[in-house]
Please model this.
Amino acid sequence: MTGPSFGSQFELHQLRCFVAAAEELHFGRAAARMNMTQPPLSRQIQLLEHVLGVKLLDRTSRTVKLTPAGRVFLLEARRILRLTESAALATRRIATGEAGTITLGFTAASGYSFLPRLLLQRASAAPNIHVALKEMVSAEQIESLLTGRIDVGLLRPPIARSEFTTLKVASEGLVAALPVGDGRLAQASLSLADFDDAPLVMYAPEGARYFHDMLDGLFKAARVTPRVVQSLSQIHSMLALVRAGIGAAVVPEAAMSLHFDDVHFRPVVTDPPHPVELYAAWRADNDNPALGAFLGLLHPEGGDAAAASDEMPD
Amino acid sequence: MTGPSFGSQFELHQLRCFVAAAEELHFGRAAARMNMTQPPLSRQIQLLEHVLGVKLLDRTSRTVKLTPAGRVFLLEARRILRLTESAALATRRIATGEAGTITLGFTAASGYSFLPRLLLQRASAAPNIHVALKEMVSAEQIESLLTGRIDVGLLRPPIARSEFTTLKVASEGLVAALPVGDGRLAQASLSLADFDDAPLVMYAPEGARYFHDMLDGLFKAARVTPRVVQSLSQIHSMLALVRAGIGAAVVPEAAMSLHFDDVHFRPVVTDPPHPVELYAAWRADNDNPALGAFLGLLHPEGGDAAAASDEMPD
DNA sequence: CACGCCCATCCAAAAACCGCATCGGTCCAT
DNA sequence: ATGGACCGATGCGGTTTTTGGATGGGCGTG
Model:
């Protein structure tokens, strides 16, 4: 008693049948193109028409023509089928790592010089890899790497997590940031001793542990004791204080790109000469297929970064 | 030995299953939403993954997560599904005549006044009906109606074809086009006798049969014989000759919208007072669903057109 | 008027799909 | 540490759907 059960939605197979029939205007040839015989093709088109509630093809035993609605639906069907193919293609490209998105965490300081260089000069080697940037301090990056909020972090050591793989991507020297009028500007370069008992805008141990500990260690090893007048965590804030004449600051070379008026820079001789290190870190079990292509961008070749290393000093 | 036979293309049902699973991140709930049980849903998603050659969902026995490729494919799948719905909707709207395209033939003269009024004032009543315009003379329109190149024609009688339905949509009077300096401009209105033995730019019998025969008949009935100095088929060409002072012309009122410098118009009293008739014609068996809505625009209500008529004078 | 072409329909066989029962793995509470 | 709850995958039998061959019927052609 119940008639044939029409699904409430059409299927792509029906669309393909319809497009073939609409283009051939001949059920036999259309069926051949679809690698099937004519009766099932007729049936599929009938099904499609029933689902839509619309006659798409006007067929006599002699001719097949598109109805006005069929003309419109033909365009729509072609668009849908094109979209399915491009969707499959795009998805496969993501899966193979040819294209994709990498979410990258970075510290403010690495954003001054290393990151722009990376994006401008290297990213062209992988034009289909989109890099989504998130600025956060190193500790946040480690947390975000664990939760998967970022794929890769650009951060400062120590990175004491066994589930991470790390790569040293850059190391740089320190420079003194001095206000105009500071006598030490007469020297071409400074030594740590030049900061003994002099006012210094220092890194805060909480928000900038890495720089704080590194400078602290360097001064102690050189038996130098600067007068710490302020402790901040953001380089640009420190330079603002320097500009106000509150004291000097010791910052990574990359900070020179900040260009504060009335603040000048002089290299600071240290041992080792490039104590400021930047590492990339990512979870070894990160399954983002674009990761490989992105890491390829990081590998230094003739750049100013030191040799790669999978071992991390603690 | 041979494994299960995967189709080479995915189906919309698999897309719907995947979207449900990706949104619920839970196969059981997704299956419930799809009105089926969990095992077939698992299979559909496996099938989809095999067809794409891409893992879309990372599933342990405890959690379900999207892979990066799955995230991309989810967006694409949603887009495809949205498109299928809008395609069905648009097609149904075409089929019911709520929307659609009418290809309309029109004569040059009807384009001066009647057609702009129709499109500007009436078309807003059927905003989803698109009117594609094709200018052609009446004979061409009849031919195009038969071959289906146009759905409706705006043309001059006679329309002696049994397969057409016709409707008088406008009738108008005649005006004299006179060059500056013509003595007859002193009169507020002219009679046909004012053209006796005067130079007249006439319609050509080939290209403008309707106007030629009508004027010819009017003059003969009034026993008036103008001096025909030129015969043209395009009104704007005739007015250009009038402007050059070659003679007067008798044209439909609508031609006054042409605004030639140094050409002025005066009404011409005729019997009947509105001898210039414009008809709409269409094939009775035209299956364009938008036809009904378009014809609704044509029906005069308080307009200047005469009453509708299915009978056509010959 | 007979023939050929072409789409629709009928029917049996094949394929696909679904639901049930169940397995194996993980997490959680005890 | 262990038992139970939860969850997705898998095996299997029954049902629905689809397919292809044969056939029917309408229409144009010679």
Observations:
- Residues 302-314 of chain A have pLDDT under 50 and may be disordered.
- Residues 26-28, 38-39, 42-43, 46, 59-64 of chain A lie near DNA strand C (CB under 10 Å from a C1').
- The longest strand of chain A covers residues 164-172.
